[in-house]
């Protein structure tokens, strides 16, 4: 980030803290995609990610005056978001936890043949892509919460180990060691079982009807293929301190990034024009 951009960001924060609605809107618009994508990977579904992202945005707004500019603004945002998501218990997979053993058993023993066509005349290639993106995202739920967060910060957002360690309360060395082990576990699973990203026998196109029957895929609600993808550079324009990553991370190409859903944008616009914002300004 250039010195000029740092000055502009600092000015935005000062003006937003002082009650400038336009400055606050600019700040949130620039981090809402980051917040949503982190929430999506941590929680596993679009509806849960949308709800959590709204909570996090409110926390950022109400705590903005506490930001002392002792770290990058994006680091401060990550810290708030990570702390919220690690303790988040309202999402579906908090009630129904997954494991790699469950996934392995399902791939090995699921009865995927001789099922009726349940695709509702939706193009099968689109459904297969939706299932692939959904499945690999849900697969992250096989990791415990902290390991999932380490994997997402290191592989998707490529956070510097010093900053990630600070966010998670561990040394940079411990963070790097755990990230390496978690990446290997994920890569081994994909290689052994996934036919889309590895050498496994599981193919999304062969499991469409099974996925629909088991309510893992809804032809009428295509969140992943129906949401616009964005570049990582655009999403993390405020993020600093990138680091080089090992070749293994290149195997995780399913970590696409998406624009914030309209629900989040509408929520923020309504909040900007609400009496609640005025009340917060007076705090």
3D structure, described in words:
- It is a single chain.
- The protein has 283 residues and is an all-alpha fold.
- The chain is built from 14 helices and 2 strands.
- The protein has helices at residues 3-17, 21-43, 46-63, 73-86, 92-95, 100-109, 124-139, 145-156, 161-168, 172-193, 208-213, 232-235, 262-272, 275-281, and strands at residues 229-230, 257-258.
Uncertain segments: 238-251
Mean pLDDT, rounded to whole units? 86
Counting helices, strands and paired strands, the structural category is mainly alpha
Radius of gyration from CA coordinates: 20 Å
Q: In whole angstroms, how far apart are the ends?
A: 32 Å
- Taken from the alpha-carbon principal axes, the silhouette is globular
- Tell me the number of helical segments per DSSP (H or I, 4 or more residues long): 14
For the biggest β-sheet, the strand order reads 1-2
| Estimated share of beta-strand residues | under 5%
Largest sheet: 2 strands, antiparallel
Q: Order of SSEs, N→C?
A: HHHHHHHHHHHEHEHH
* Helix content bin: 55-70%
Got a strand count? 2
């Amino acid at each position: 980030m250039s010195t000029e951009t740092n000055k502009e960001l600092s000015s935005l924060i000062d003006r937003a803290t002082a009650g400038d609605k336009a400055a606050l809107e600019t700040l949130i618009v620039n981090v809402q995609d980051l917040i949503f994508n982190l929430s999506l990977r941590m929680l596993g579904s679009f509806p849960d990610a949308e709800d959590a992202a709204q909570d996090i945005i409110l926390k950022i707004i109400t705590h903005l005056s506490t930001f002392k500019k002792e770290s990058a603004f994006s680091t401060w945002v990550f810290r708030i978001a990570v702390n919220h998501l690690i303790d988040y218990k309202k999402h579906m997979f908090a009630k129904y936890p997954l494991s790699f053993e469950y996934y392995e058993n399902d791939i090995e023993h699921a009865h995927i043949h001789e099922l009726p066509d349940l695709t509702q005349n939706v193009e099968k290639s689109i459904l297969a892509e939706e299932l692939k993106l959904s499945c690999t995202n849900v697969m992250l739920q096989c990791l415990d919460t902290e390991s999932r967060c380490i994997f997402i910060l290191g592989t998707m957002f490529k956070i510097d180990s010093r900053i990630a360690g600070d966010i998670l309360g561990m040394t940079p060395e411990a963070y790097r060691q755990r990230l390496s082990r978690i990446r290997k576990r994920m890569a081994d699973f994909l290689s052994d079982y996934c036919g889309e990203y590895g050498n496994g026998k599981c193919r999304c196109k062969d499991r469409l009807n099974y996925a629909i029957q088991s309510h893992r895929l809804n032809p009428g609600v295509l969140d992943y293929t129906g949401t616009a993808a964005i570049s990582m550079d655009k999403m993390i324009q405020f993020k600093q301190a990138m680091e080089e990553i090992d070749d293994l991370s290149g195997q995780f190409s399913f970590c696409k990034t998406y624009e914030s859903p309209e629900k989040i944008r509408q929520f923020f616009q309504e909040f900007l024009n609400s009496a609640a914002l005025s009340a917060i300004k007076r705090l």
